Amino acid sequence: MLMDKFDSIFVLFDIGMLLFAVAACVIAATARPDAYRAADKQSKTFWTVVLGLTVLFDFLVWWGVLGGMLFLQIAGLIATIVFMVDVRPALSQVSGGGRRRGGSSSDGPYGPYNGGR
Fold first, then answer.
1. Which of 29, 31, 66, 97 has the CB geometry, 3.0–4.6 Å to 92, for a possible disulfide?
2. What does the pLDDT look like over 2-39, one tens digit per residue?
3. Helix, strand, coil tally for the chain in percent (to 5)
4. Which residue spans traverse the membrane (predicted)?
5. How far is Cα of residue 113 from the mean position of the Cα atoms in its chain?
6. Which residues touch 9 (CB under 8 Å, ≥6 apart)?
7. Which helix (H) or strand (E) holds 112?
8. Is 38 in contact with 31 (CB distance < 8 Å)?
């Protein structure tokens, strides 16, 4: 009975890693290729292949085809974390993401802050 609980927890981890890798793969595939060069990161092809293989391995482990491939799952999880923590913010900064259009640095959440003037 206790092992059934552990199995269900591991299934949740498998699904979580799969969804995390899918999100990273979609972000990597939709980013512009020149943004990778401008951010001085590996190429779009590199990240798309690495994250695509991670999605494939995670899916096969979740499906039950690859049973004892924990090493590949951990390597894929590390690659996904590196992409989401390091590469994605750099791509966003180079591509102009995260900045509001037409705003300035003194704008607050409800409009410009002018010091009460």
1. 97
2. 566 666 787 888 899 999 999 999 999 999 999 999 99
3. 70, 5, 25
4. 12-33, 45-65, 71-91
5. 34
6. none
7. strand 111-112
8. no
